[in-house]
Design brief:
It contains 12 helices and 10 strands. It is of the alpha+beta class. The protein has a 4-stranded mixed β-sheet with strand order 1-4-5-8, with helices on one face. It has a 4-stranded antiparallel β-sheet with strand order 2-3-7-6, covered by helices on one side. It is globular.
């Protein structure tokens, strides 16, 4: 699959895959059972330099020639081990840190971004609210100008890394009448007075991805913690980062699908019925081939979208299509994998049920399939 890629990319994948096999996979079931965010594994990845994949060397990044493709592979490989763990890591290494790198001043980068790339601080990005998800123009978290900065009031929902974050980029409106054009980005330190975690959310999928409801009650944010050159329209800048994130969500789906496919193949070679391994039956073989077809289609298109991003080309449609193709293929593939396991597929001692549960996240997280289709429809003129 990667023979056509250059040495930098293949070597990156090889080293990462070894870590996933040796460190993440052995802990994946326990992480899912407990719903625990592993600070230990998070720090290990930081020490190995993986959070700097998309950033230049001068701020502690890797300075890679193909940053988006390599980060795509990072998301994919981590999801092959545990999509729950991968979801939190990938949010940290993408939008949560990208907003500071792109629009933060030197002091903010030194205080938050540099240690975040070393795995010493955890970042989050808060946009969704209880009554505003896909309709981002309906955001009601308010940033009121005061002497020296702003005061934030509001509630955020479904925030990845919400209970463990050291800093959060918050989307808040400076002018509710302007919709998205009145939304700005504010970097909030979680030690700030008035900030609190409303509750940690209990999920049936990606359980080890920390997800929370956040509350902002008269939280003061200094002027220099507003990310952007001018007041108003900061969200439109962040939207570019959220667009790329769709590729990374597709990569999570590819990684989970790979794990499910590998498990189904292994089980088909071990499980005996009617005097032979079930993999000898043509019905099982055809299912496995169909699963492999979905997997490879998803991987190829996701890599294609990431390669376009590395070349600085438009990816609005491509990122949305990648998320549709990979997300829905992953879910269908995981259904097939569980059916191959039969009754054992329903047992928690086997991973098939975890792969299927986790497969629902890429179809919803970061924008539902219908929203992705709407984005593409607008790009083709409807």
């Amino acid at each position: 699959m990667l023979e056509h890629l250059n040495e930098e990319v293949t070597e990156f994948r090889s080293h990462l895959a070894r870590w996933v096999d040796e460190r993440l996979i052995p802990q994946a079931e326990e992480l899912d059972r407990s719903g625990y965010f592993s600070h230990e594994l998070f720090r290990e990845l930081g020490e190995l330099g993986y959070y700097g994949v998309m950033y230049p060397e001068e701020i502690g990044g890797s300075g890679l020639k193909h940053p988006y493709l390599c980060f795509t592979i990072l998301c994919e490989e981590l999801a092959r081990g545990s999509m729950g763990f991968a979801a939190g890591v990938c949010m940290h290494g993408s939008t949560a840190t990208h907003t500071i790198h792109q629009w933060g001043n030197a002091a903010l980068k030194e205080k938050y971004l540099v240690p975040a790339l070393r795995g010493e601080k955890i970042g989050a990005f808060a946009i969704t609210e209880p009554n505003a998800g896909s309709d981002a123009a309906s955001l009601r978290t308010k940033a009121t100008p005061v002497d020296g900065g702003y005061v934030l009031n509001g509630t955020k929902m479904f925030t990845s890394n919400g209970t463990v974050a050291d800093f959060i980029t918050v989307c808040a409106s400076t002018d509710l009448s302007k919709g998205l054009k009145g939304v700005d980005l504010f970097l909030v330190d979680t030690q700030s007075k008035g900030f609190s975690v409303g509750r940690k959310l209990d999920k049936f999928a990606i359980r080890s991805s920390d997800t929370a409801e956040l509350v902002f009650e008269d939280v003061f944010v200094p002027d220099d913690h507003r990310l952007g050159d001018s007041v108003g329209g900061g969200f439109l800048n962040a939207y570019k980062s959220l667009t790329v994130d769709r590729i990374f969500t597709a990569a999570l789906a590819v990684g989970n699908a790979q794990a499910a496919y590998d498990a189904a193949v292994k089980y088909s070679r071990e499980r005996t019925q009617f005097g032979q391994n079930i993999g000898k039956f043509q019905a099982i073989q055809f299912r496995l081939v169909d699963m492999l077809t979905k997997l490879e289609q998803s991987r190829l298109y996701t890599y294609h979208a990431a390669s376009l991003a590395d070349r600085g080309l438009s990816i609005t449609s491509e990122a949305a299509i990648a998320k549709i193709v990979a997300g829905e293929s992953c879910n269908a593939l995981c259904h097939e994998a569980l059916s191959i396991f039969g009754g054992y597929g329903l047992m928690n001692e086997y991973p098939a049920q975890r792969f299927l549960r986790d497969s629902y996240f890429p179809m919803i997280g970061g924008g539902t399939g219908d929203i992705m289709r709407l984005i593409v429809a607008r790009q083709i003129g409807f």
